[in-house]
Amino acid sequence: MDEATRGAARVAFDERGDVVNEWEWQLLEDKETLQQVEIGGVPLRRGDPVRLRPRAGGDVFDLALAGRSATIESLEQDYEGKVHVCVVVDDDPGRDVGLMRQPGHRFFFTPNELEPLQVGEKAATNTKKILIAGIGNIFLGDDGFGVAVAQRLASFTFPPGVKLADFGIRGFDLAYALLDGYEATILIDAYPGEAPAGTLTVLEPDLCELQTARNQAAFVEPHAMNPMRVLAMAAGMGAQVHRVLLVGCVPATLGPEEGQMGLSDEVSAAVDEATKLVASLVTRILAGQWPRTVERDSQSPKGDVNVS
Q: CA 227, CA 87: separation in Å to the nearest integer?
């Protein structure tokens, strides 16, 4: 780096938003390029295969990537000497974009979040794919229940094949997500009923009604969420919609006409129990133990359902 370039670079900012001082730039310039990193006693270089084992309590990306096989794209070292391993995920449709060092398809992990793989070996994946979808409008009081539960579930570690997403009121996004093909879909939403506010209900919609609902699917609003219409639209787009569960909570209020943010006390108190319920359903489905006592619903079921 010449002196002119060095002078211009000194006004840059680091990841924390602080000005990178001359001492820090000197460290970066003097640092040797990292050629390999040792993981579990195995030396790994660029191009070597690894299995992703993100730390517990990570974000949604960590949940989605846990257990996936990936390839090391580069080895990076910051000015503090910390090593960061950049990978591209093997089954990522945008993998080629990641290999061109473009953002969005390159993921960074610390060495202790990776496990070496033999060349040609793939990470074991669960044969069942499950989509957990939190839905609802956070500006309509208790209608934000599904979103709150999805956010709480983000701290959970699910096995490979289980995808968690907060769709809010983005019906089209949910429909397109269903095109990925899931053996089971768990929808989390506020669900009116005659039970007291905060009561949790598990229902299985009758998917035979999707053919009828397809006639209404064209009316899916881009900023609203009607689960049955979204499922019908996804089926019309070619998605193989298999079994679906709805984890619903009876709302206390959807707020006034001008809107209301925040859950009622009754529904807020049910969020923790709902997260445990969803995790339990995932465990059962992966084990091939579909809840036997969940009743099917053809139109608008009401009342509690005991899951056993």
A: 36
Fold of 130-297: Rossmann fold (3.40.50)
Rounded average pLDDT over 124-137: 78
The secondary structure of 17-73, three-state, reads: CCECCHHHHHHHHHCCCCCCEEECCEEECCCCEEEECCCCCCCHHHHHHCCCEEEEE
Q: What is the pTM of this model?
A: 0.55
Tens-digit pLDDT profile for residues 48-100: 899 988 887 767 677 778 888 888 888 888 777 788 888 888 877 665 554 45
Which tens digits make up the pLDDT trace of 231-270?
A: 888 887 777 788 899 999 999 988 777 778 889 999 999 9
Which CATH topology does 30-116 take? SH3 type barrels. (2.30.30)
Residues making up the chain, counted from first to last: 308
Q: Determine phi and psi for 275, rounding to 5 degrees.
A: -65, -40
30-116 and 130-297: same fold? no
The alpha-carbon radius of gyration of the chain (Å, integer) is: 23
Residues in contact with 198: Cβ distance below 8 Å, sequence separation at least 6, in sequence order = 249, 250, 252, 264, 266, 267, 269, 270
Domain ranges for the chain, please list them. Answer: 30-116, 130-297
Q: Find where tokens 């202790």 sit.
A: 112
